[in-house]
From TrEMBL:
InterPro entries: P-loop_NTPase, Small_GTPase_ARF, Small_GTPase_ARF/SAR. Pfam families: Arf (PF00025). SMART domains: ARF. It comes from Mycena rosella. This is P-loop containing nucleoside triphosphate hydrolase protein. Mg(2+) binds at T34, T58. Residues 1-10 have a biased composition (Low complexity). Gene3D superfamilies: P-loop containing nucleotide triphosphate hydrolases (3.40.50.300).
Length: 212
């Protein structure tokens, strides 16, 4: 553990062209979404919760640009209430979804599974985003006694079922408090957002702009 480098730039190929893309941070209330945003904005901040701002519950959504290596990410951190309103243009106008689940509260996993599957179903039905990747992050792993059991969480969420339905989906353990796992999670995002997703997203965006 430790602050360590949080940017995947250290490992990425120098010739990797810079990307600009949008990420939706979704998941149940209190799952740790805003803390992930805060950690990504402060990768070099000392570890431990007092070093990160204690977030107030998010109302509506927060949007922040965060440099990630040579790339620029716009993160959309949605409250649970806002997620329940899929009419929000900003919600869908992203390249990739990060779905946060509190790994230290196993009692929330059945509800999180329902929400994850419901999200995947909504994405599947929307032709402009139906191929978009989803990264599930098991958050607050610093609160566990030992490493997170991602196999067990994968079974509980039936990740295999989503893979069988064609979803590009990953599962990573992270702690916003200690920064553990954050680099691997962002590496997954960068590796799985393909040029096709970006092109498709940009075409949708310009179609929306023309319409407006
Ligand atoms: N120990 C620990 N606590 C965390 C971590 N991430 C978040 N928390 C705590 O969990 C609580 C909820 O965190 P938030 O980041 O506000 O969660 P959220 O998903 O944005 O919550 P809403 O905006 O209300 O939906 C806060 O008390 C955080 O300090 C973590 O990595 N480790
Ligand atoms: Mg929040």
């Amino acid at each position: 553990m430790g602050a360590g480098p949080s940017s995947p730039s250290n490992d990425s190929d120098e010739s990797d062209p810079p990307k600009t893309f949008d990420i939706a941070l979704v998941g149940l209330k209190d799952a740790g979404k805003t803390s992930i945003l805060n950690r990504l904005q402060r990768p070099e901040q000392p570890t431990g919760l007092p070093s990160l701002p204690q977030p107030a519950p998010t109302i509506g959504y927060i949007s922040q640009e965060v440099p990630c290596g040579q790339h620029l990410l716009t993160l959309w951190d949605f409250s649970a209430e806002t997620q329940a309103d899929p009419g929000k243009l900003e919600y869908w106008n992203v390249h990739v979804f990060i779905f946060a689940i509190d790994a230290s509260s196993p009692e929330h996993i059945p509800k999180a599974k329902d929400e994850l599957w419901s999200l995947a179903e909504q994405i599947r039905k929307d032709s402009s985003i139906q191929a978009h990747p989803v990264l599930v992050v098991a958050t607050k792993i610093d609160k566990l006694n030992g490493p997170p059991d991602l196999d067990e969480m994968s079974r509980a969420l039936d990740i295999e079922g989503l893979v069988k339905r064609g979803r590009t989906i990953g599962l990573k353990g992270v702690s916003a408090a200690t920064n553990e796992g954050m680099e691997g999670a962002m590496q997954w995002v960068l590796e799985n957002v393909t040029h096709a997703h970006i092109t498709q997203h940009d075409e949708t965006k310009s179609a929306i702009m023309r319409y407006l």
